[in-house]
Amino acid sequence: MDTSKLMTVNKDDKKSLWIRTLDISQNKLKQFAQLWSLQTLTDLPDRLRNLWQQLIGSYWFIPTACVIIGILLAPLLVTIDQHFDRETVRDITFAFTGDDDAARAIMTAIAGAVLGVAGTTFSITIAVLSMASSQFGPRLLRNFLTDTPNQLVLGAFIGTFSYSLLVLKSIHKYDVAFGVPQLAVTFAIIMAIVCALLLVYFVQHMVHAIQASHVIQNASNDAINNIHYWYGSHCDIQHQRDIEHHDVEQFHNWSSMPIYPPRSGYIQQIYLESLITLTQDYGGVIQIHVNLGDYVTDKNVIGYFYQRPTAHPNNRQKTSTPQLAVVPRAPDGVFWQRFANCIRIEQRLVHSNDIAYSLGQMTEIAVRALSPGINDPKTAVNCVQSLTSCLSIMMRCQPPSPYHFYVPAPNDDASNAEVKQQRLAILAVVTHTPKISDFINTSLGEIRRYAAADLMVLKALCQAMVNLNYARVNSAQQQTLLHELTLIERAGEENLNYQELTDDLIAMSKQAKQFILSDDAQHRYFDYVSEFDAHIRKALQTQSK
Asked: What is the pTM of this model?
């Protein structure tokens, strides 16, 4: 009797455990459906682009793809060989027409040779990475690892090796009607010749890639691409003008709740479209105070969620005017799960669309070039010039607006025509946008602090301020350049060893300030002439007379 009761209890426990497991699975599926709905994936292109950048940024992706191609090509060409006319192959002058022993010897030689060359290229790559890490900085390693030509060369070698092994496996004593896979062996010979040419190209490419000018140019191109990604002629300024009830000024007075990151790490991406959808569903405004590349912990306050007041005109019931925002509701567990899906945090800094990260690469090259171990101020000057080009583009372009709006869909209902006319945009997300002065301070300003005792670099920084003045569009940028010139002048006064060097720098800085303050500076050429050069010119003119 006790045994039967015990069996009944065990069955009930198993049944209840199964029911609990089923309920938990259903809840998880519901949460997954909410998190990954079409509404939260409105920025799917950005997510796919980030995934593609991660794949391309890995050193294994392209070589693995080449191995897969080699594995698929081998049985395909062997199958074509089985249905191909032998006499037609013999008419091709460069085609292989030997017996199975010759084919086996050729494929063995090709497989062994390309594998050995692949090891050589890998060793060269490791040596270059070691040198680049010590000379240019560890953050520049990714530029070498993601170099597509290097990956393609290594992929061609190991792909040819994989292909040769599979073709070698298919060579055996065939019947007289078939013979050996002549087309497959011919293709392997062609690939061996291509691999030999790729080896020569690889050596030439690596010699060119480790040059400082080439590394700086690649970093500059990367920064310019990121600048064009964020800066442009289109932004939400018009929406900001159309917003009613002064939400831009008044949302700070709403009830707020602090926002914490889901985990510690570096902020790599903020998916604005998903944040806009989230604020639309919960009726509020999210303000983010951090930038891309900032390090945060799971206890940091990175922003606030401002809940719209109950009497706000944008509020509505869920059953009316589906184009507007919902009735405000307090953030719940689903809110925080969806917010964690709107921000991408990594444990280490990786390549992204962060402008500061791209500019920081050139800054790091310049700082290392100024170190006593390297002592290459000319490279630092090249970095200053490249940074000047990038910053001048930023000064001419329109900066991104920190205000991001939800634009209601057009309503075809005539009864809502008045609502459609009154509401053009609803404030949803407010981000922190760095100013041009911030970028100048973290790039050229960082170089100034390390080059305080180098006259060549300090004069290059003065010239950079003059060059940036040609691109300025407002008085705030002008004041930033003048302030930076003052700091350059002070750094030279405190660190230069000789008074003559200090006087030269001060004279150039004063001339640069006068040039920037002049009304027609953007239409004149700046030519600094030191006191000694002016004396020499005057003496030469006197002698010529």
From this structure: 0.77
